[in-house]
Design brief:
Blueprint: H1 9-20, E1 28-30, H2 36-47, H3 50-56, E2 73-78, H4 93-97, E3 102-107, E4 115-120, H5 125-133, E5 138-142, E6 147-151, E7 156-161, H6 166-173
Length: 175
């Protein structure tokens, strides 16, 4: 999987991190050129206000109230300030989402609206977020787009949509 000459920035950093840490394609892979647009568009349609999405896409939707108003807000917290919540909550993402594969949307640069989308095992998301790229805004959803988890660069984590158990979230996130 030597593709160092094709990419720069965040994608290169993560690709190198995966190689160095033996994270294989069956656990983490970036979506290809013919896959990402459909996944990105579905995320916008399911979670972001239409007018906001037309103007900004996903960019800063997790800060500027860009999410649709008709979607349930399951749980929100600020890392490090409430109920002893720390960054370790994401290490137990599998317990929260209870699925084998998620889409992970990673913001390339806080000054531009560019996202890399990966299909990955939820049990390794914390490695990518905490070890490889922290801090950056990110979004996680299941392949059915039932729910969305996002953390912005102000350390605010939001769970929106349907199908996640708030009691499990609270238990896992406040340990």
């Amino acid at each position: 999987m030597q593709i160092y000459n094709k990419w720069t920035g965040l994608r290169l950093e993560i690709t190198q991190y995966c190689q160095e840490n033996n994270i294989f394609e069956n656990d983490f892979r970036f979506l290809g050129i013919y896959e990402w647009q459909n996944v990105y568009d579905r995320l916008l349609k399911n979670f972001v206000e239409e007018r906001y999405a037309e103007k900004y896409g996903l960019y800063w939707s997790n800060i500027q109230a860009g999410f649709r108003k008709d979607i349930d807000k399951i749980y929100t917290f600020t890392v490090g300030s409430e109920n002893n919540v720390s960054y370790e909550w994401i290490e137990k993402l599998s317990e929260i989402v209870k699925c084998e594969t998620v889409y992970l949307f990673l913001e390339e640069d806080k000054q531009a609206a560019k996202y890399w989308i990966a299909e990955c095992n939820p049990s390794i998301v914390h490695l990518i977020i905490n070890d490889a790229i922290y801090p950056t805004d990110y979004y996680i959803t299941n392949k059915k787009f039932d729910w969305l988890i996002t953390e912005n660069h102000h350390d605010i984590v939001q769970f929106i949509g349907k199908g996640l158990d708030v009691d499990i979230i609270k238990t896992v996130c406040t340990k």
